[in-house]
Amino acid sequence: MNLIKLFVAITLFYQPLSVAQDAFRGFTSEQSTISSALIRSEDGIEPISLKVSGRDSEQELSFYVGDSQKNKLVLVMAGLGGDGKGGLSNFLAIEAAKRGYTSLVLPSVFSEVFASNFSSTGYVGYVHPDIVDCIRLIRESVRLLENKLGFKFIDKKILGYSLGALTAAHLSERISKSDNISNVVLINTPVDLGYGLRVIDQFRAQKEFLSTSTIKLKLKWFLRLRKYLKRSLDIFNFTKFAEGLPSDLADKQYIIGSILSGSLRSVVLSSQERLDLGVLPQKNRKKAAKKVMFEGYFKQFLVPYYRQVEKFDYVDFNFINTESSLPAVESHLRANNNIYLFHNSDDFLLRGQEDADYLKEVFGKRLKLYNSGGHLGNVWYPEILNSVFKALSL
Predict the structure, then answer these.
(1) What is the DSSP string of 258-283?
(2) pLDDT (tens digit, 9 = 90+) per residue, 313-322?
(3) 197, burial (CB in 10 Å: exposed 0-12, middle 13-18, buried 19+)
(4) Domain 1-394 classified CATH 3.40.50.1820?
(5) Pairing of strands 101-106, 181-187
(6) Ramachandran assignment for 158, one of left (phi > 0), alpha (psi -120 to 50 degrees), beta (any other)
(7) How far is CA 324 from CA 162, 169, 212, in A?
(8) Which terminal residue of the chain has fewer beta carbons within 10 Å of its beta carbon, N or C?
(9) For the packed helices 3-13 and 382-393, what is the interaxial angle rounded to 10 degrees?
């Protein structure tokens, strides 16, 4: 990083945080996180379809074309379960296009789309094969954009959020220099993957302590979401939406757990269609798969696959978690000054102050840590969004 870039980076990451902090002060982590469901792509802005060959059929990835910097590609890596068809991933891709970039949305490695079509094993969740498959997908997508659609990219950047940020951190270490990746921006990455997944499992388990029936809670949530999706995304409507959420903590946590686990059943079923380990019963398989928790998937499906099929006798849940979590690429993150992180200290996927201190120590001036915002609840806010893309352009 030259002196000019260093000066800009220091200026960016030491600007006052008061505006963004004030906007989200007073929201609980759960309120902010649930309200992130309001983030969506803009009406009237449709993606262009890029058809990429999958395992059995062609899959459509979404991309958007900017103008002033269309020869620079931003790879948006979706969060847990994201199929790349909407929500936050397309919102960020559109924001990149507004700033002149060409942007391509990649599905989460932990999604039915990726597991069924782009995973070499069908059993996703172990970082090393997932990264190899992800790099293969990126290279094929870039090849199609350049050779078939005429783009000539002089630079590529990665913007990952949630699990997509953790994937991006690992990918940035493994990908070749010839792939010409410059800056990488991570948003709300888990530090310890296993801890984050257990929290989501615990949130799902709040079903036993709801203040009302599951059906009534989900219906009320859906109707409120549909109402506010018709309104503009600004702090006024965000606040009104958040204030009207259930007051009971178990209710809010269950909503979050249900949202973040939305793709799990499909991933489980997809793995068994590829290679049935005999874990699920032959009857009512979908119902049985729906009951699987994240930790259960890793211990009952992923670990047995690597021990029984790949003959990796040393693999267990702790091994996969250690290899797949953020500290596994710590030395790379410390040494690479082009990797930036945006996070919230009240993100429930972090282990409180322990993880916050760890991130400060690893990223230093390249970390921007907000006091509030939960998990991805404040990424849409204009001040924060502008800072994200400034970091991406350094």
Answers:
(1) HHHTTTHHHHHHHHHHHS--S-S-SS
(2) 999 999 999 9
(3) buried
(4) yes
(5) unpaired
(6) beta
(7) 14, 10, 37
(8) N
(9) 170
